[in-house]
Write a structure and sequence with these properties.
Oligomer: single chain
CATH architecture: Alpha-Beta Complex
CATH topology: Spore Coat Polysaccharide Biosynthesis Protein SpsA, Chain A
Radius of gyration: 19 Å
Number of domains: 1
Length: about 300
């Protein structure tokens, strides 16, 4: 069994000022997604599904076809690619959209768009985040172990200290889990950074209080492991969400919300998989130079070939 990689690439990049998914950040113009796919293939994945918006689907498909035409899975078979679109009107027919709404319905809605093209355990990632080789190996191993499972999912947790920004405070969802390393909660913390006294602190979203954070606490960077039964459970939750929010202009159906509902109802458990990898990504244009430098260093150190995908 070869797991599937599901790439969330529908974000328009409004804060970034362009399509982050297509921005060349590596030494030879490689995108962050290029590195994720390279790591996924090395870890044994066999298929990549992109969630995109209709307005740039054709451009993405052409780019992928040119770039990855010769990429093989570990067993020598061609790496498969599929594209599905997320649009705000892709909801059950019984609901009527508020005509003023412009945004799609969030990350958990995006995942639902792939229900008809995924029949293996799969891993969800953001298209503009770098997760590292160790994380993909960890996630692939989980998928292989859960090929025939239902109602057990996984989240790859990153040590908070490995996700900080060099340019200021960040928001992080810090994971709580029980003695069996099953997720119990994800609490959002804002402005996570080292204060002038050298202590790592954050603003707790529930209390507003500035509280110490342990550098090795695990946080969510939106890397999830699911089995196909997740789609049916999530679709039912989405209908309930729409019943409450169909007229809202901005509320979104997020993956952490869907998973939390399943945990609290007893429908599912979620394994917390700690990774030693260092995460980085681009949110604003100001982040770009540091990310370019990191990829240059990884290439110089021989962690990745350069160029990443050599043409025959």
């Amino acid at each position: 069994m070869k797991p599937t990689l599901l790439v969330l690439a529908a974000g328009m990049g409004s804060r970034y000022g362009g399509l982050k998914q297509m921005d060349g950040l590596g030494p030879n113009g490689e995108t962050i997604i290029d590195y994720s796919i390279y790591d996924a293939v090395e870890a044994g994945f066999g298929k990549v599904v992109y969630i995109v918006r209709e307005y740039f689907r054709e451009q993405m498909e052409q780019t992928v076809k040119q770039k990855y035409s010769g990429v093989k899975c570990k067993d020598g078979s061609p790496l498969e690619f599929q594209f599905v679109t997320q649009e705000l009107n892709k909801i059950p027919q019984r609901f009527t959209l508020n005509p003023e709404r412009q945004k799609p319905w969030g990350t958990a809605h995006a995942v639902l768009m792939a229900a008809d093209v995924i029949d293996t355990p799969f891993v969800v990632i953001n298209g503009d985040d770098f997760y590292g080789k160790e994380s993909f190996a960890l996630a692939a191993g989980w998928c292989r172990e859960h090929e025939h499972s239902e109602g057990v999912y996984g989240i790859v947790g990153f040590e908070v200290d490995n996700t900080l920004s060099e340019s200021g405070g960040v928001s992080r969802g810090i994971c709580s889990y029980d003695q069996d390393k099953h997720l119990t909660d994800v609490v959002e913390h804002h402005n996570v950074m080292y204060d002038p006294d050298g202590v790592l602190r954050a603003d707790n979203s529930n209390t507003g209080e500035r509280v110490p954070v342990q550098a090795k606490d695990l946080c969510s960077m939106n890397m999830w492991c699911f089995t196909p039964d997740y789609f049916k459970k999530s679709a039912l939750l989405f209908e309930g969400f729409l019943e409450q929010n169909i007229q809202e202009l901005k509320k979104e159906f997020y993956i952490p919300y869907a998973v939390d509902c399943m945990i609290k109802s007893g429908e599912a458990a979620c394994d917390v998989l700690g990774t030693p990898a260092r995460w980085f990504g681009v949110t604003f244009k100001e982040d770009r130079p540091a990310v370019v430098a990191k990829f240059a260093q990884l290439a110089a150190d021989g962690v990745y070939p350069s160029p990443l995908y050599a043409k025959d």
